[in-house]
Amino acid sequence: MHIIVTGFNHKTAPVELREQMTFTGEELAPALHRLRHMKSILECVVISTCNRLELYVISDQPHTGSYYSKSFLEKEFGIPMGDFVDHLYVKRDEQAVRHLFTVTCGLDSMVVGETQILGQVKNDARVAQEAGVTGTLLNHLFKEAVTLGKKVQSETEIGQNAVSVSYAAVQLGRKLFSTFTGKTVLLLGAGETGELTAKHLFEAGANRVIVVNRTLEKAEEVACRFRGEARSFTELIPSLREADIVVSSTGAPTAVIEKAAVQSAIAKRIHPLFLIDIAVPRDIDPAIHDLDNVYLFDIDDLQGIVEANIDLREQEADKVGVMIEEQMIRFDEWLQTLGVVPVITALREKALDIHEETMLRIERKLPDLTEREKRILRKHTKSIVNQLLRDPLSRIKELSVTPEKEQALELFVQIFALEEELATEKEKPEESVRSESCRPSMLHPAFTGETGIRS
């Protein structure tokens, strides 16, 4: 079996193509069923975001699996394969696993270290599992990927440092104010970056937003998004007196906030005034730096913070790379244990048959047993079998990842006389094996930690 990922992202495909090839939440489950029934595809998960579309499949034939993944995309979106194939990447087995781990850790994102992708991967994997199109391999792979992503978030600082101007402004504000709760934000102008900064401040706890703009209609449109209030430009001075944080992003050719206006606004106030000038040319007179209890930062200040934080994220990315390689080793060790699954299954089935035959003989010899007595006997005899199996099964799983695994498995089969059971397993029809691979949850004891017989 082969793990294959076929897809594109913001690095390999233009936005015009990414816009055409995406799945909404409602479209994803039906699409997964169609992908699952393509030739040679035994399990599948589709990751669909604004910046990437990736098909993760388990296939019995690597070239066939990747071809039918591409064919699926062609049929789903009605776009000739030749129009998008040059934008695709295809990764198999170890490379596919490393790619998924890199994605969930935020190293493959447009903004390195962003955490949103982890939630998207987790959600799309859940949709696939609930749709019944995943099995042992992809269930375990995505569980490990999500666990690694969470570990990276908690044990490194790759996502802790702002790498956008708007977030950098919020980061500065946190140093000045212990909390944004109860703070008033004055947004001067309706520029996109200024509005985004105000949005982040609002989401961080600021409970009042005043929007001042030369066009009152535009101010009202923006203020509505924050449940705030719109004011005309003539009300700038009184608005400054009410504000704790000012975000300015007009397109004015000269400064619109003079030193004298700020001096008037801060008279008799106790709390500091935080000014963020995102405009180019600058909106706020640099002389304001000289005023007490006033903190002014312009676009260059914020950009410097962003660049420093990008450097910090890149340093953390090296740590994440080490964590990914460690996880790759653990996943490879787990893959090695899959060779022991048929042997474990054979021993459990043989034990189950022996137990069932023994119970039938007991019931024939003791026909007067009540149903309660039968249940008690069945429970305790199963417990005996399970305890006898526990250590041998644990040992063979340990041996299955050693260089001597082939000899160990052969000896294990001989000791427990499992040749007949394994031969029967190999004779199962192909569709039965295919169905087994695509169970929606990992029920096999090799993956649940169980070693005995189910009640």
Automatic annotation (TrEMBL):
Membrane-spanning residues: none
Domain Glutamyl-tRNA reductase N-terminal: from-to ranges: 7-156
Bias (Basic and acidic residues): 423-437
Pfam families membership: GlutR_dimer, GlutR_N, Shikimate_DH
Residue ranges annotated for the Quinate/shikimate 5-dehydrogenase/glutamyl-tRNA reductase domain, each copy included: 172-305
CDD domains cross-referenced by the UniProt entry: NAD_bind_Glutamyl_tRNA_reduct (cd05213)
Disordered as annotated region, ranges: 423-455
Residues binding NADP(+), per UniProt: 189-194
InterPro entries assigned to the protein according to its UniProt record, in alphabetical order: 4pyrrol_synth_GluRdtase, 4pyrrol_synth_GluRdtase_dimer, 4pyrrol_synth_GluRdtase_N, GluRdtase_CS, GluRdtase_dimer_dom_sf, GluRdtase_N_sf, NAD(P)-bd_dom_sf, Shikm_DH/Glu-tRNA_Rdtase
Top-rank taxon: Bacteria
Tetrapyrrole biosynthesis glutamyl-tRNA reductase dimerisation domain boundaries: 322-418
Pathway membership: Porphyrin-containing compound metabolism; protoporphyrin-IX biosynthesis; 5-aminolevulinate from L-glutamyl-tRNA(Glu): step 1/2
Catalytic activity: (S)-4-amino-5-oxopentanoate + tRNA(Glu) + NADP(+) = L-glutamyl-tRNA(Glu) + NADPH + H(+)
Site keyed Important for activity: positions: 99
Active site: 50 (nucleophile)
UniProt keyword list: NADP, Oxidoreductase, Porphyrin biosynthesis
Known EC number: 1.2.1.70
Residues annotated as binding substrate: 49-52, 109, 114-116, 120
Function, in words: Catalyzes the NADPH-dependent reduction of glutamyl-tRNA(Glu) to glutamate 1-semialdehyde (GSA).
PANTHER family: GLUTAMYL-TRNA REDUCTASE (PTHR43013:SF1)
Subunit structure: Homodimer.
Domains (record comment): Possesses an unusual extended V-shaped dimeric structure with each monomer consisting of three distinct domains arranged along a curved 'spinal' alpha-helix. The N-terminal catalytic domain specifically recognizes the glutamate moiety of the substrate. The second domain is the NADPH-binding domain, and the third C-terminal domain is responsible for dimerization.
Family label: Belongs to the glutamyl-tRNA reductase family.
Entries under NCBIfam families matching the protein: hemA, PRK00045.1-3
Miscellaneous notes: During catalysis, the active site Cys acts as a nucleophile attacking the alpha-carbonyl group of tRNA-bound glutamate with the formation of a thioester intermediate between enzyme and glutamate, and the concomitant release of tRNA(Glu). The thioester intermediate is finally reduced by direct hydride transfer from NADPH, to form the product GSA.
Protein name from the UniProt record: Glutamyl-tRNA reductase
Organism: Marininema halotolerans
Underlying gene: hemA
